[in-house]
Amino acid sequence: MNTFKLAVLVSGRGSNLQAIIDSIEREELDASISIVISNTRDAMALQRAKEHEIKTIFIDPAKHIDSKDYDKALTDKLKEYSIDLICLAGYMRILGEEVIQTFEKKIINIHPSLLPAFPGLNAQKQAIEHGVKFSGCTVHFVDLGVDSGPIILQTVVPVYDKDDEKSLSKRILEQEHHLYPKAIKMIKESKVNLNGRIVTSNTV
Ligand code: GRF
Predict the structure, then answer these.
(1) Considering only CA atoms, which residue is closest to atom 5 of ligand 1?
(2) Is the pLDDT of residue 204 over 60?
């Protein structure tokens, strides 16, 4: 049987990458990570990948004249590995047209809010400052906007009066680590159908 090949794009801590690795190693997720790509040289995520003997690549933004050029290098690299699904896991660059069009419906992201509320940076801080009573996390397909693509799965998390950005982030992150591998598994098992921006799942 063909392996379902993942590429994981990272920039920092890599706890979601770790959750994916763990889920594969526990044999809950039948997939393999072909490559972990980072735009930051010393991302902790790269270290985590190396500890599990996963191939890593740092694509240096300083070596590319602009985002278009950077994205071309990224697209070429992803093509080389015949990737089935690209998972953004704390990847801090916005993907340009070339990558998105080349890998249409094959790029997903995890975001720490209930989208479409609080897209972009510091989603947990935005939630606290807005005074919402529930927040959560979202796995979605990536389109050309910021955190605007079709929603695949969400988990709701309560926001308590005593919460600050840190405590809320921690509660959300715990759920992210369940949600991301679950979404990948559903896609791998062809249980995710995309119709316009509506995602339905035949998971009964
Ligand atoms: C997570 O909160 C994720 O939702 C967001 O960036 C953070 C990455 O954390 N996109 P980590 O690098 O996976 O630990």
Answers:
(1) 90
(2) no
